Amino acid sequence: MRAAYASATKPDEPLAALTVGEQPEPSPAEGWVTVDVRASSLNHHELWSLRGVGLPAERLPMILGCDASGVDSEGNEVVIHAVIEDQQDPRGFSLLSERWPGTLAERVAVPAANLLPKPAGISFLDAACLPTAWLTAYRMLTTQGRVSEADAVLVQGAGGGVATAAVVLAVAMGKRVYATSRDPQKRDRIAALGATAVEPGARLPERVGVVIESVGAPTFEHSLKCAAPNARIVVCGATGGPFPKVDLRRVFMMQLHILGSTMGTAAELAALLDFCVEHEVRPVIDSTYGFSAVADAFARLNSGEVFGKVAVDHLH
After folding, report:
1. CA–CA dist 114, 118 (Å, integer)
2. How far apart (Å, rounded) are the C-alpha atoms in residues 157 and 163?
3. How many CB atoms lie within 10 A of CB 31?
4. Handedness of CA 181, 187, 191, 197 (dihedral sign)
5. Among 19, 124, 161, 268, who pairs with 39 as Cys (CB 3.0-4.6 Å)?
6. For 207-264, how does the pLDDT look when each residue is reduced to its tens digit (9 = 90+)?
7. What is the pTM (predicted TM-score) of this model?
């Protein structure tokens, strides 16, 4: 079957480690099922895998991809939850494409419990954008950030998949949303989504109850300064660097909560799907590529110019 996979790992040249070609058909273990993939989407996780982060040489070649929607063997339209229980991993779980083949293929095998019904009103392409970035943002806001207790939210570095999802979701939840971006054009697009777009480090008109933080070192001091007493600063990444300066006096005097967050549960994905249907929310898609142009999709993601998700239509 056709697949996009890591044939090598190249820390400084990730796209050179990507191969599109034939790979073996899935061979499901007991309790696993095969899904015909109709659509998928890309995440920076794929680029990190091509660099060799979390993907050692002994697991190569590895089919990439976490996100997908498709049709199971009984003809049901489904969305795939990419988190697999894995006691060999210190986290207690791993993602598709880390230990088991991923979703950037014609077919993928997953545990039966990892399939959720795709709502009729959500397209395959939209559904395929939800299980990683959008699920991460949803968990950050709800389970970890307890956004129901907050009136205002700050999203750092909007433009990428998680941050853009957090903006859209928080606006749909009725919160006042502030979002930073270095790019004036991205700030215009953020404002069009219903948020107040500001430059990085800008003073806000109020302190916020929840901060969505995926940038790290360049923005973390600003996140601390913008946080209200007892606010939650929820961290899911560190694209700008993992070692920020932290003024601990502000942490304890304001009684701030700094929380880590990664992906989400199948129940949270089901809740996200329901939320999208109820509030008529759909993911922001930067661009869509046919599977025959999946290498171009990777190049687009790697460009750093993406606003929202890069989606892949497996039927073209």
Report:
1. 12
2. 7
3. 8
4. positive
5. 124
6. 999 999 999 999 999 999 999 999 999 999 998 999 999 999 999 999 999 999 999 9
7. 0.96
